[in-house]
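Quick one:
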Amino acid sequence: VQLVESGGGSAQAGGSLRLSCAARTGTFRSACMGWIRQAPGKEREGVASFDTLGTTSVAGRFTISKDNTKNTLYLQMNSLKPEDTAMYYCAIVWRSCSGGVPAPQAFDIWGQGTQVTVS
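Output:
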């Protein structure tokens, strides 16, 4: 599976962005999908996950959703804050994540990331 993120960019504090993650090859219907971010000088942290059974987990003000017909995962980010500035990655782990967002090191496949900058 190849993952390609898009939708990052610059936003004002209080604004919104929607990130997309497209599976260019393969499918992620049977995988747990997640969004992970890494701010400069900080460790990666899980932001949201979407389980194989449709259970979603979100840390914060964001909303995660998935469109299986388009093989695309989304992250809607509202009320953005400067501390949301980070590189955002889409990733897959081939197991259930109904118990919450997995630790970043648990994910098996990663996209290249998309930068989000909030000022």
